[in-house]
Amino acid sequence: GLAELGAHWIHGPSPGNPIFRLATRYGLLGPAAAREENQRAEAGGHPPLPSVTYGSSGRVLSPQAVSKAHELFDALLASARTFWGAGEPPAPSVGQYLRAQIAPRVPTLGGGREDARRLQLAVLAACVKLECCISGTHSLDLVALQPFGEYVSLPGLDCTFPGGYGSLPDRLLSALPAGTVLLNKAVRTIRWRGSFHEDGDLGRAFPVRVECEDGDAFLADHVIVTVPLGFLKERHQDFFQPPLPRRKAEAIRRLGFGTNNKIFLEFERPFWEPQQQLLELVWEDESPLEEPSTDLEATWFKKLVGFVVLQPPEQHGHVLCGFIAGKESEYMETLSDAEVLGTMTRVLRMLTGIAAAPLTPTP
């Protein structure tokens, strides 16, 4: 099978998406992605996959109740995007804004019935976790409200590369002359705002010199730097000579990013139905209005939003891909595969109520 450790989907696969256009040109996508009706679909970044939602009480939750909470959350999230370029927002962060919108609605959630109200709040809490994964953050309190609407979702039902995401860069590389792309060529310093010359050629000056760890150097008029933000935070002061302007350095300092992780679980036989493509997990004692536990050792797995069923099973086997973000995700990185596998097995058995042999994943 194929496990995408990095990017998984093309989000918004439609003519306005350059990745989609390239993949289509090279014939790297399946037939469903080429259908015009799929390219026109307005999914808002959240494709409506057939799903089942498991609650922490070991039962499948009412699809109607889950759908109602999702609809409310989607509406609130859409309203959070309206403050882009609109002056002073009503709250500093997306998290604070959502809580302020949810709180006055609590008395009417679930038709006023206490058990239904608690379930609606629990599903809303699960929606917040999903949005943390999408935004790549530990908490929506870390996501500024005013620019939240700057991100625009293109139309189209998300699709994958049957041959893996790597098939696109491989195809691009194949069209370039040999030696054009140098791998494992670590750069030590980028010297810019200079006047550099090739040996023996004083007639042409280049403003940039890229110096590598192995002593090689390259002269250029322009250099596009795409290193991770974390690298820039640690190294920008000595990586660029002269140092970057103060406004650039300040932007690097103030920008944030979070941790997203995937968990792949392979099963001999599926415990889910063939039509199900998404298994959602809801902890029924949670609420978006309450602070989550900070005891990561005891509760890290509760940040897991659920599992996508990798499709098609003929190619991937019976594999679930789980998503988890934030500090809980970072804590998980300190655990062994065996510890993660044991926890995932316990969680799935508890939420699905299935303790039989089919629910024995392998890492």
Helices, strands, pairings?
Elements: H1 18-25, H2 36-40, E1 51-55, E2 59-60, H3 63-80, H4 94-102, H5 114-135, H6 167-174, E3 187-191, E4 196-198, E5 201-206, E6 208-212, E7 217-220, H7 229-239, E8 240-241, H8 246-254, E9 260-267, E10 278-282, H9 296-299, E11 306-309, H10 313-316, E12 318-325, H11 326-332, H12 337-352
Parallel strand pairs: 1-10, 3-8
Antiparallel strand pairs: 1-2, 3-6, 4-5, 6-7, 9-12, 10-11, 11-12
Number of helices: 12
Query: What fraction strand?
Result: 15-25%
**In percent, how helical is the residue content?**
25-40%
Strand order of the largest sheet: 2-1-10-11-12-9
Number of strands: 12
What integer is the average pLDDT? Answer: 92
CATH class of the largest domain: Alpha Beta
How many independent structural domains? 2
Summing up helix and strand content along with how strands pair, one would put the structural category as alpha+beta
Order of helices and strands: HHEEHHHHEEEEEHEHEEHEHEHH
